[in-house]
Design a protein that fits this description.
1 helix, five-stranded antiparallel β-sheet, globular
Length: 402
């Protein structure tokens, strides 16, 4: 591991933030409704529907609070101060609550604990980025009672001097890994690193250093001391997926790519497997097998599940785009460039069309699963023809399980 110049990464602190004349805890009327998918007949529960672009936490991380009641998201279109803020919607009744206010939210940084109703995120400050812990239980309780306190919900755990930070929680939830893009004093070049921050001790250690931009950092949610990340290019990286585990001197490539491989949208499937997409959106790429795939990170064995099966009247020519695996290990969810969402039975490889027409703008569906593996969560431009973005949940039909 790298151990040099660790004190340049963080200023460690621990104090609560006060709130005056705050919109934190502000409650919005429910926007919940439902409709029947015109192609599949599946019931789609609409949680938010407005002119706002409501953007979920990225699909590689938890969406629900630990108690399973609230889904956390962010948007720039609902706050009275004009800044992007964090919100939560209660799945059972559509109640909407504002969780933050003020400038500087780092929208890529939102990370929910799997064990407690706690949200971690970054906010720009004069000294870099403040690393914040938001205690959700008292916030929700005080909001429901209409008696918000002036302080006590947010705690600044540290200040990181560099921007472009992304966060991921270790399975123990003791370690928060933080990606850093910063200038190297000796050479003047930009360096990309991952730093491990101990939430209990307040100590930190650099564990990964790469000459390329690090993106999509994901700690293994089932095993301590293991991180998946990517070479972020915004397109086709020469080697997309990388893995580091405690004891490694350097991160190693995962799924070593050949010329016609375009890998994207990797996510942990279980303790030993990563799901990813071998893009097949051009004829050139289809010269090789493409589609959603699983790789065993211990053996490098790969299973490719292919592209959507043709359905009359349904456009899926460009294939799958994003993917995720249910916690029970039975299903892969995949969206297509056309905005249709499929479930693939991992054991039988049978494909089931779940819901259709989600437009994929102003953002993509990014399907993921509830912790009980019974529901698929997406964001959708369907109801506004791509002008705004709504949050939706689709129950997995019992017929798929037969």
């Amino acid at each position: 591991m790298f151990k040099k110049a660790l004190l340049t990464y963080f200023s460690v602190s621990c104090f609560t933030l006060g709130l005056a004349a705050s919109d934190v805890g502000r409650v919005f009327p429910s926007e919940a409704s439902s409709y029947e998918d015109p192609v599949t007949g599946a019931k789609v529960q609409v949680l938010t529907h407005s002119p706002a672009v409501d953007v979920r936490i990225y699909q590689t991380h938890p969406q629900w609070t630990a108690d399973g009641e609230w889904i956390v998201f962010r948007t720039a279109d609902r706050s009275r101060d004009g800044y992007p803020q964090i919100y939560a919607v209660r799945e059972s009744d559509g109640t909407l609550v504002q969780l933050t206010e003020g400038p500087g939210l780092s929208y890529r940084s939102l990370r929910l604990s799997r064990k407690e109703n706690i949200l971690y995120f970054l906010r720009d400050s004069d000294d870099g980025q403040d690393f914040i812990k938001l205690d959700l239980d008292p916030l929700f309780a005080d909001s429901a009672a209409g008696q918000m306190r002036e302080e006590g919900y947010e705690t600044i755990l540290a200040t990181f001097p560099y921007s472009r930070g992304m966060l991921t929680l270790d399975s123990s939830e003791r370690i928060m890994y933080y990606s850093v893009e910063h200038p190297e004093a000796e050479s003047g070049e930009t360096v990309n690193t991952i730093v491990a921050f101990d939430l209990e001790e307040g100590t930190h250690e650099e564990v990964v250093r790469k000459p390329f931009r690090i993106g999509h950092i994901q700690a293994n949610p089932h095993r301590d001391g293991e991180i998946l990340f990517c070479h972020e290019t915004g397109g086709d990286a020469p080697q997309r997926m990388w893995i580091w585990r405690e004891g490694m001197e350097s991160a190693e490539p995962l799924f070593v790519e050949e010329e016609l491989d375009w890998v994207t949208h990797e996510a942990w499937a279980d303790e030993d497997h990563v799901v990813f997409n071998l893009m097949g959106h051009t004829p050139r790429l289809r010269q090789r097998p493409t589609g959603i795939a699983l790789i065993n990170v211990r053996t490098n064995k790969v299973r490719i599940f292919g592209q959507p099966e043709p359905i009359s009247g349904l456009q899926n020519n460009m294939g799958f785009w994003h993917c995720n695996v249910s916690p029970d290990g039975r299903w892969i969810a995949g969206d297509t460039f056309s905005g249709n969402v499929y479930l693939i039975d991992i054991e039988t490889q049978a494909q089931h069309l779940l819901t259709t027409g989600h437009v994929m703008r102003p953002d993509h569906a990014h399907p993921s699963f509830s912790s009980d593996s019974r529901r698929v969560f997406i964001q959708s431009g369907r109801l506004s023809d791509g002008e705004s973005l709504d949050l939706m949940v689709v129950e997995i039909p019992e017929a798929f399980k037969e």
